[in-house]
Structure formats: structure tokens, C-alpha cells
What we know:
Elements (H helix, E strand, L loop, with lengths): L1 E8 L3 H12 L9 E9 L5 H7 L7 E6 L4 H11 L4 E5 L3 E3 L3 H16 L4 E10 L24 E5 H7 L12 H11 L3 E13 L8 H21 L3 H7 L3 H10 L11 H9 L3 H27 L4
Parallel strand pairs: 1-2, 1-4, 2-3, 6-8
Antiparallel strand pairs: 4-7, 5-8, 6-7
Helix pairs in contact: 7-11, 9-11, 10-11
Amino acid sequence: MFISVVIPTYNRRPILEKCLYALEKQSLTSFIEEYEVVVVDDGSTDGTPLWLKEQADTFPHVRLVEQEHGGPAEGRNKGVEKALGDVIVFIDSDLVVTENFLSSHAKTLVRSWKDFGNRFCFTYGSVINTANFDEPTSEKPKFQDLSWAYFATGNVAIDKKVLQMSGLFDISFCLYGWEDLELGERLRKMNVKLVQCPEARGYHWHPLFNLKQIPELIRVEKERAKMGLVFYRKHPTFRVRLIIQYTFLHRLLWEVLCLGGIINERSLRPLLSFLINKGRAGLALELLRLPLNLIGVRALYKEADQLGLDR
């Protein structure tokens, strides 16, 4: 097989460098004839395109595709369009993989194609979250790293023709969130099977939580709410309601846990600061997720009211 790794990126040059170095060090199986890395720069302003062109000898497998800032859905579609391979692997540009990453996906895909008698499946690798920039692959797996998503582009491999049959990503998801899960709903309707591939391990780097990140986290929740309703309007099912938290029970849950908004990002700030200073930034972020969920659900219902959607 010929694997094309498609990576959309936007202003992530430092961690992208680690991502690409890891992909150059792959131990390949006999199933892989060739592979390439298609980096789609989404209008970065940090010099990423120029840097990649200057480092062409360092990253011989990389092909650069440039676009004006249009979001990851558009970037992934363009990457698939330009890909030469018959298998597409999606990862994010802040993911650092192990040496057997591609070979693990390849072995599991070939075995699954044989078992199913067709290529209507995709492999789903494991993603381990880490804040260790220097040695991201030293992080131990945690319970919080488990994912129950059906199709998430942080670490998946799929036959290119099957992917194209699905219609690729919907570029109306122009803000943060849900474009991969929405594509997953279409793949599910095509009876494309999920095959777990935990050996294809990637380490998702993000900086340790600090209080300066709160405005950005709130912005993301509000964008997720808007895109969540784009998702629901395309697939108006109870399943999607559960996924995006567009149910009365979700709203009740977060209202109760946050005491109707008394527990919020402002009232929690002293406790969050204390935990961060004690080296418990992860716990601080988990506490902040309580009001963040409430902010997201309230934004979801507000947007639904403006759109005149039934509850």
C-alpha cells in the first residue's frame, strides 16, 4: 500500500517539527510500499511554509500544500485531493507518533480487509495527551485519554476510495469542532466498521493549563456550540443530540453542578491558581471543565433559539 499522511496545520511550527521528525523515523512493514506526508498549511503566520521549504532535505517524505485560512475541514479535503496514496492517515500537527505507527495501521488494515472481504473499515489509533514538549512519547496512558468517538481525525487510517465515497469533510464546519464526527456519521451509514488499533500510538501535545488560556477555552466552547448545531441539522437524531449535549438532561446536569452559574471561571479562579501553583494544572483544568460545559450548553441553546430549532 501507499500511505498518505494528511496533516492540516496552523501556527504550530515548534510541535509540527517534532511531528514530522517522528514520521521520518518510521519502521516500515512489508505491507507499505511507500509513504508520504502531505502537510496542508492553513494560512499560518508563523513562517511555517517558508521553514518547510527550507527544510525540504530534512523531511524528504513531506509535500507542502498551501491554502488561505479556511479551517481543518477544508485543509484535510485539500490534502486528500493532493494525496498520491491509496490509504489516508489523518493526524493533527501536534501529534508525535512512535516508530511503528504506520506499520501498525497498515498491518491492522490489511488483516481487517481480509476478515471483512472488503475495505469498508478504518483503523483508530490511540491518542495520549501530554504536556511534555521535550519528550512527549514518555507520557504514560491515562484514563482521560480513552475516547468513545466513532471517527476522530487525531489518529485514523482509511482507504482513500472509501473516504471519497463518503463525500469527505463538510467545509460548512468553518469554526472549531465536529467536522470529523459528522463525517463519521456518514461513514456509519455506509456501514464502514471501526477497528481499534491501540499499537498505532500518538502523543497529543498541549501546553500545561494556565489562567491565561481561559478566554480561549471559552471561545472554543462557543464555537463548538455553533458547529454542534450544524452537525445536528445535518443529522437530526437523538444520537447526535447526545454527542453535542443538546438535551434537557445535559443542561440540567451542568446547571446543577455549577449551582446555576455560581461556580464559574471567575469564582473558581483562586482555587485554579492554587492548584496550578501546587503543580496540579491537570486537576485545575478538569475543574474548569464544569463551567466550560455549562457555557457550551447555554451557548448551544441560545443558538438553537436564534435558529428556531425545536427542543
